[in-house]
Structures are given as C-alpha cells and as structure tokens.
Write a structure and sequence with these properties.
This protein is an alpha/beta fold. It has two domains: 224 residues, Rossmann fold (3-Layer(aba) Sandwich), CATH 3.40.50; 69 residues, Winged helix-like DNA-binding domain superfamily/Winged helix DNA-binding domain (Arc Repressor Mutant, subunit A, Orthogonal Bundle). Helix content is 47%, strand content 19%. A hairpin with a 4-residue loop joins strand 1 and strand 2. Helix 10 packs parallel to helix 13. The termini are far apart.
C-alpha cells in the first residue's frame, strides 16, 4: 500500500487546504468528515455483537444565507468526485428515484453505497413525497445488509448492502418551515449532525490570489490519500483504555441533553462518537484502531459542535402562530406597498395554516407594532388589509 502524504492526518491537511476560504471552520471540518465517510462506505466497520456499526454520516450545514455553506460543501464533494469510489447523487433525489436505483443495484448484485449531496436541503426534502423519502432515509441510516421496501406499483423491492451518506446545506429559516416536530421526535432529524455557524472565519475577497502551487499540492495530496483510504477494509478494534473511557461517558451521557429538540441526536450519540472515532482513525492511518486519544478528540469535536446546534432549530416550535410569523413578515415586505389582504394571505398559505392561526399571528405582530390592520371594502365584500409598519 502506498505511503500517505497528508500529515498529521487527512482532516488537518484539508483544513490547511481550505484556510483561505471564508466559510466557518466547522463547515470545513464536517465536510471533511462527510467526504471520508463517503469514501470508506461499508469497507470498514465495528462489530458490535448484535449489529455492525458503519461510519456513515448524515450532515447538514446550517447558517444564514450569506454564510458560504454550499461553497464549503462543494470543495469537499469536488475532491470526492476525483476519487469516485461510490455514487454521488446531487441535487434533488425523490424516493421513487432512489428506490429504483437501489433495486437495480441490488438486482445486479452490487452494493447500494451512495452519497446524497444537496446544496439546498429543501431541494432534497421539500417535495410531495417527503414522507416516503424521510422513511427511506431513516431506515437506511443503519446500513442494513438486507432489507425490503414495499411499494404500490412495484411491490416488494429487495435491497442489499445499503450505505447512505448525506451532505446537505440549509438556512435556519427553511428548517423552521420545512421540519416538523413529528420528524424531530420521530427520529429522522436525530440521525443528522446539524452544524450551525453564522460568522465566517476570515475576510477573503480574492481567494484565488492564495491558490498557489502550495495549495494545489495540498489538494493533490488529499486526492492521493483519499484513494488510499478508499482501499482500506476491515473491522475496527478499540483499545482497553478507550473502552474504559467510553464506559464512563456512556453511563453519564443522558445529562448532556438540555434541549428536547435534540433528544434524538443525543440518544444516538453513543454510536455517533464511535462513527467519528472511526473516521478520525482512517484520517490518520490504516491501522483501524480507536485509542483513547482518538475517542477523546471525537468527544471534543462533537461537544464543540453541540454548543450551537440548537440554533439550527430556533424556529422549530409547537405553535404554528410562532412558526410562521417570519413567513408573514417576509410576504408583506415583498408585496406592493408592503400590504396584503387577509384573503390573499390565506390563499398563499392555505397548506400551512388556517384563518384562526393567521389571526393569532397578526395579533402578535400588531402587539409588536410590526403590522397595522385596516378594514376595507372590496369588490368581493369586506376584507382586512394588513400593512407592514415601517420602522
């Protein structure tokens, strides 16, 4: 096997390669983890006795529109494309397409390993068959050796050797309207590592000026080492000291969760710590060993990310009158004269809320002196006009 070039490890070299790119460092860190997970697929695992644990990850980069989430993800996926050990499905992938793809791969006796990459999470999860796609991705997270998906039109579709990785980008605003509490409590979002940041790490108006021979050499090293990593196969072992440290943390882990929206995440963190540890190990060498230093670094990286993870779901609440408040403000701001009739707003949002909820939203906005209301006579009868108050 060829000698590795990235020192001290693949992730550190990746961060060195991206140091002049403006995106927050944590976006680059978790993009690097996603690339590694996509590269190893089902090649490496931990034998947990009753099941096998693979290091696949569902990662979502979350931040305001101005934060370069997609640019950060593109850098990693473009490197992954050069190695292409497994399929990368970009953009919008419906449940029907994925089932067809999985069925054809299984029928050809090929493993069903792929990465779903979406620069906009709403493109991946925002269509009419979202419920079916969520169910499919939830079931696939554990990388089952064999499973079946039952469909109306094609009957039972047998699937073999599944391994999905997801890398997607989102704004908190879309998570507010595009994620339900049912999905959170049902476990789908708990399978994601939500990486939130709202401040870029540097100001680099001309990053191309720094893309010199040294940076290009780093990219070549990353690609060469990724090819080596793609050939690594086998079972991980965990040292006795790492086992002892993990046991201590395992018994006290429930105290970590202070936000009920993240309960699913923390409930699965026992496996996530080991997944990240596996990826840290393959980033360093081919030994397939998790020692105490690797395990502690995994805890540290996850704990650091968890400090802001709740911010990604700041708008996900039980009360739709709070959930859609910002939606109404944006719609008023974009309308002519920053005003809309009640009937027009209801028609625009009929699939989100009813008249009772809209009244509560408007009451909150009126009390906050953000909106004023006027009763108007129209050709269709009396209607209420909502107007945004200029601050």
């Amino acid at each position: 096997m060829s000698q590795r070039k990235c020192s001290p490890n693949w992730i550190e070299t990746y961060l060195d390669y991206t140091r002049f790119q403006e995106a927050p460092t944590r976006f680059h860190i978790w993009t690097a983890f996603s690339v590694l997970a996509s590269t190893v697929g089902r090649n490496v695992k931990m034998d947990r006795g009753f099941f096998k644990l693979f290091p696949n990850l569902y990662v979502a980069l979350v931040g305001p529109t101005a934060i370069t989430k997609t640019t950060a993800a593109d850098i990693g996926v473009n490197i992954l494309d050069t190695v292409a050990p497994h399929e990368v499905l970009r953009g919008k992938s419906t449940s029907w397409y994925l089932l067809d793809w999985l069925g054809k791969r299984s029928a050809a006796k090929q493993s069903c390993v792929c990465t779903l990459y979406s620069g906009e999470m709403k493109h991946l999860l925002g269509d009419l068959n979202k419920a079916e796609l969520v169910t499919l991705l939830t079931d696939a997270y554990t990388c089952p050796d064999k499973t079946n998906f039952n469909t109306k039109t094609k009957g039972k579709i047998p699937i073999n050797e599944v391994c999905f990785n997801i890398l997607a980008c989102s704004t908190p605003e879309w998570l507010t309207t595009g994620t339900t509490l049912d999905e959170i409590h049902g476990g789908f979002t708990g399978r994601f590592v939500y990486v939130y940041a709202d401040v870029e790490k540097c100001n680099s108006p001309f990053p191309e000026d720094f893309f010199d021979a040294k940076i290009r050499a780093l990219r070549d090293d990353l690609i060469d080492d990724l090819r080596i990593i793609s050939t690594v196969h086998g079972n991980f072992i965990i040292t006795d000291q790492a086992k002892a440290d993990y046991t201590i943390w395992y018994k006290d882990r429930k105290a970590e969760c202070t936000d009920e929206r993240l309960a699913g995440y923390f409930g699965r963190k026992r496996d996530l710590v080991l997944k990240v540890s596996m990826l840290l190990s393959v980033a360093k060498d081919n030994s397939l060993v998790i020692d105490e230093s690797t395990l502690k670094l995994a805890w540290k990286l996850l704990s650091k990310n968890e400090e802001q993870m709740g911010n990604a779901f700041s708008g996900v609440v039980d009360d739709p009158a709070l959930k859609y408040k910002d939606t109404i403000v944006v719609q008023l701001a974009r309308s002519p004269n920053q005003e809309m009739f009640k009937s027009t707003l209801l028609k625009a949002n009929w699939h989100k809320f009813d008249s009772v909820i809209l009244d509560r939203i408007i009451t909150n906005l009126v009390d906050a002196k953000m909106v004023e209301t006027h009763t108007k006579q129209t050709s269709q009868g009396v209607d209420v006009l909502y107007k945004l108050v200029r601050q």
